[in-house]
């Protein structure tokens, strides 16, 4: 299975942008990059995914490096409700989702 | 009600008890999943059902017995559990179980299980 590396934890101030990094140096050409997050006492929820181009949706933006060996999830204006564990996941074709330990994001008021 | 629901949200049981966890999805999906999340460990996939047929069983002990009577409902029957089985049990659903790399899974809130 393709692997990802994320920092264990990060802190950010409320109402500031947050950049959550993910390294995936062994990514193959057909692997999609998915991000999920898990809020306290809840199940994971889908955030965003992409292949090569940068992606935007109402929750976040995903910036993918040109060589695809790393990506960054961008929360444009963090709120206290964004405090969660963020998982960066690679999905090969017809492969299941495999969760790592993720990054625990703390938002400071 | 929308999305994926799970009941009960919390459960305490003794090692000799038999209990069941229930999951229901209101998304019209064809695949359902059970995951286990122990403290300080990543989520572990336990079972996958596609169109009510079990398509994956990740070496889960027989004291966990899944049941999928239709594509909207999934159960996890528990018997003679051990204290180390205490964890958050999460149910998820997706459009299909083919694992197409663009597909999204939708998770329920989980059942927090404590085995005494």
Shape of chain A: globular
Low-confidence stretches of chain A: none
Query: Biggest interface and which pair forms it?
Result: A-B, 23 and 21 residues
- Which series of helices and strands of chain B comes N to C? EEEEEEEEEEE
Proportion in helices of chain B: under 10%
Account of the protein in words:
The complex is a heterodimer of chains A (109) and B (116). Chain A has 109 residues and is mainly beta. Chain A has no helices and nine strands. Chain A has strands spanning 9-13, 18-23, 32-38, 44-50, 55-56, 61-64, 70-75, 84-91, 103-108. Chain B has 116 residues and is an all-beta fold. Chain B has strands at residues 4-7, 10-13, 18-25, 31-37, 44-50, 53-57, 64-70, 73-79, 87-94, 106-107, 111-115. In chain B, the strands form two sheets. In chain B, strands 2, 4, 5, 6, 9, 10 and 11 form a seven-stranded mixed sheet that branches. Chain B has a four-stranded antiparallel sheet with strand order 1-3-8-7, with no helix packed on it.
Question: What's the layout of helices and strands?
Answer:
The complex is a heterodimer of chains A (109) and B (116).
Chain A lengths: L8 E5 L4 E6 L8 E7 L5 E7 L4 E2 L4 E4 L5 E6 L8 E8 L11 E6 L1
Parallel strand pairs in A: 1-9
Antiparallel strand pairs in A: 2-7, 3-4, 3-8, 5-6, 6-7, 8-9
Chain B lengths: L3 E4 L2 E4 L4 E8 L5 E7 L6 E7 L2 E5 L6 E7 L2 E7 L7 E8 L11 E2 L3 E5 L1
Parallel strand pairs in B: 2-11
Antiparallel strand pairs in B: 1-3, 3-8, 4-5, 4-9, 5-6, 7-8, 9-10, 9-11
Short description:
The complex is a heterodimer of chains A (about 110) and B (about 120). By secondary structure, chain A is an all-beta fold. Chain A has strands at about 10-15, 20-25, 30-40, 45-50, 55, 60-65, 70-75, 85-90, 105-109.
Key terms:
heterodimer; A: 109 residues; mainly beta; four-stranded antiparallel sheet; B: 116 residues; 11 strands
């Amino acid at each position: 299975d393709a692997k990802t590396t994320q920092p264990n934890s990060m802190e950010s101030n409320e109402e500031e942008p947050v950049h959550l990094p993910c390294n995936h140096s062994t990514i193959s050409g057909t692997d999609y990059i998915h991000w999920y997050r898990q809020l306290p006492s809840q199940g994971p929820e889908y955030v965003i995914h992409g292949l090569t181009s940068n992606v935007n949706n109402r929750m976040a933006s995903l910036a993918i490096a040109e060589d695809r060996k790393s990506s960054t999830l961008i929360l444009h204006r963090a709120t206290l409700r964004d405090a969660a564990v963020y998982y960066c996941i690679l999905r090969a074709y017809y492969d299941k989702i495999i969760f790592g330990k993720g990054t625990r994001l703390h938002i400071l008021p | 009600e929308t999305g994926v629901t799970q009941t009960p949200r919390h459960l305490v049981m003794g090692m000799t008890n038999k209990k069941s966890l229930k999951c229901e999805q209101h998304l019209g999906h064809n695949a359902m999943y059970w995951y286990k999340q122990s403290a300080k460990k990543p989520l572990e996939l336990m079972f996958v059902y596609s169109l009510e047929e079990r398509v994956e069983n990740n070496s889960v002990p027989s004291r966990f017995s899944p049941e999928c009577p239709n594509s909207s409902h999934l159960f996890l029957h528990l018997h003679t559990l051990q204290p180390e089985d205490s964890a958050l049990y999460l149910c998820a659903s997706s459009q299909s179980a083919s694992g197409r790399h663009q597909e999204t899974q939708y998770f329920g809130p989980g059942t927090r299980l404590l085995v005494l």
